[in-house]
Amino acid sequence: MKKITNILLIALVLQVSLSSCKKNLVDKYEETKPTNVTAKSVKEIKAPANFNWNTSNTVSFTFKGISGDARKSTLTITDDNNNILFRKLQPASENYTGNLELPAHVNKINVKYDGITTDLLVNSNTFDISLK
Hints:
By secondary structure, the protein is α+β, with helices and mostly antiparallel strands. The protein folds into two domains: 2-35; 56-130, Sandwich (Immunoglobulin-like), CATH 2.60.40. It contains one helix and seven strands. It has one helix spanning 2-32, and strands at residues 56-64, 72-79, 84-91, 96-103, 108-113, 116-121, 126-130. The strands form two sheets. It has a four-stranded antiparallel beta sheet, with no helix packed on it. The protein is elongated. 5% of the residues are buried.
């Protein structure tokens, strides 16, 4: 009987000590848990020094014409959601250089000319459009 009492006493002491350790862990977590802070102006927003605040990128493109080609058609550049980013009546025989202001998240565009659609990846600040 004395042996059972000692075992129960040891179990009780262990249970109390372990549960108090857990409480300390919860308290420690609650102290370090981040809280939401509402900024009253843009100047109060804290961001890493290398954070890119740009919401758009300027990309230049060149339409390379084919000498002697008599076609004239609409050159249309759209994003994946078919939003028109650029549109121009373009003679197939003439070169054209232009700039696009693309949303920062756009990395693929669709180029349409004379019924032909081409998908282009935008992974630099320039791209070429060729009819060949």
